[in-house]
């Protein structure tokens, strides 16, 4: 009985403290920050990229193994009204993907596997929609388009997979959608967010051989990424 009473007391205390945390009025940090027409900042974060493949014929899928990458960039924010902002977020994205091709003509690991290391100059133009600020936090969603310039694409390399070179297009157009929250701290605004990035076009540069074991059965190859960013303004 004592344990039940203790659990009830703890639960009531947790409920009360939670209500105070999110509902009780507090001293506002950076109270006039969102009234500025232009604000600036930077972001750091992580990413995980893979590919979406479409095929000419039903076959065993190409395996994409992803690993954590790194993002860093700048933020320029233009206030449109109390709820909408226009954001430009140019940055650099480092990503690595490992591909395993299932074609039975490929018999060695060196033939079947390709490491795709990409360094993108990534330039998103986003619309940020925010809710009304509550105390020192404010949720938001972002959506928009971005241009990525792949510095490691190998698009102009005359060698192809027969010589061990996997090639992609240099320029990629994406659409982006994400959510996050603005946290108003004493000296700055901190905004963690998560975002999906989706390429809109085919990025594959095909091999010279039309019957290539690596590229002949691929209709399209499009990048998909998840970004976790931490923004400081």
Radius of gyration: 23 Å
Q: Number of helical segments?
A: 2
Largest sheet: 10 strands, antiparallel
In total, the number of strands is 10
Q: How far is the first residue's CA from the last residue's CA?
A: 52 Å
Low-confidence stretches: 1-22
- On the 0 to 100 scale, the average pLDDT is 90
CATH class: Mainly Beta
Percent of residues in helices comes to 10-25%
Structural class: mainly beta
Q: Give the SSE string.
A: HEEEEEHEEEEE
CATH architecture: Beta Barrel
The domain tally reads 1
Shape: elongated
What is the third-level CATH name, the topology? Porin
Bin the strand percentage.
over 45%
Describe the structure in brief.
By secondary structure, this protein is mainly beta. It is 11% helix and 52% strand.
Note the topology:
Layout: H1 2-23, E1 38-55, E2 63-66, E3 68-79, E4 84-88, E5 91-100, H2 109-112, E6 113-130, E7 137-150, E8 171-184, E9 189-199, E10 218-232
Antiparallel strand pairs: 1-3, 1-10, 2-5, 3-4, 3-5, 4-6, 5-6, 6-7, 7-8, 8-9, 9-10
What does this structure look like?
23% of the residues are buried. The chain is 11% helix and 52% strand. The model is unreliable at 1-22 (pLDDT under 50). It has helices at 2-23, 109-112, and strands spanning 38-55, 63-66, 68-79, 84-88, 91-100, 113-130, 137-150, 171-184, 189-199, 218-232. The chain has one domain: Beta Barrel (Porin), CATH 2.40.160. The radius of gyration is 23 Å and the shape is elongated. Strands 1, 2, 3, 4, 5, 6, 7, 8, 9 and 10 form a ten-stranded antiparallel β-sheet that branches.
